[in-house]
Amino acid sequence: MVSLAVVLVVALVVVIATLVANSNDRNVSAPTPAPTVSRVRPTAAPSGNSIDFTSTEGSGRLQILEHEWVTGGAEPPISGSYLRIEIELSSTDGEISYDSAFFQAFDARGQLFDSTHLGAKDPLLDIGVLRPGQRVRGFISFDMPRGDVTLLMSNESYESVTAIKIQD
Fold it and tell me: Where are the residues of the annotated region Disordered (predicted)?
């Protein structure tokens, strides 16, 4: 009789443990997906290497003046290359905050890369605020594999503002 009671207790413990484990497996939250460019809504279709934008801060234009791939820099690139981009930002309305940290790049596979100063050249894109009629130029860079890139610009609140394609 005692052995039957022990077997029943062990069986009950196994059933409870299985139910708890199964419930925990179902309640694990899914990983947060990587940001996508689909949230970006430019106000005008891209014209060559520039695009108009409107954000919660104001309106302006992002222009790619030049880009190049380099294999050297202050430190060797981890990915094998740096993408160096010279940009010009201009403001038409409101106050547009800018900083190289407000830029990210997506490669063709959708992998996200943050900007780095290691592969950039002078003049680096500074930190500041543009008022209507003002513009600023500077370089930003990304340590990433060579290929087609989508450059994403955010604002001071890290809200996506606009995106522009850079062909390799």
Answer: 27-52
Torsion sign across C-alpha atoms 35, 41, 42, 45? positive
Decide: 142 and 111 in contact? Cβ < 8 Å. Answer: no
Q: What contacts 101, CB < 8 A, 6 or more positions away? A: 114, 115
Burial of 42 (0-12, 13-18, 19+ CB in 10 A): middle
pLDDT tens by residue, 86-141: 999 999 999 999 999 999 999 999 999 999 998 889 999 999 999 999 999 999 99
CATH at residue 65: 2.60.40.1240
Total domain count, the chain:
1
Q: In this structure, what token pair is assigned to residue 117?
A: 């100063």
3-state secondary structure of 14: helix
The model's pTM: 0.70
Radius of gyration of the chain (CA): 25
Structural domain for 64, as ranges: 38-166
Q: What backbone phi and psi angles, to 5 degrees, belong to 6?
A: -65, -45
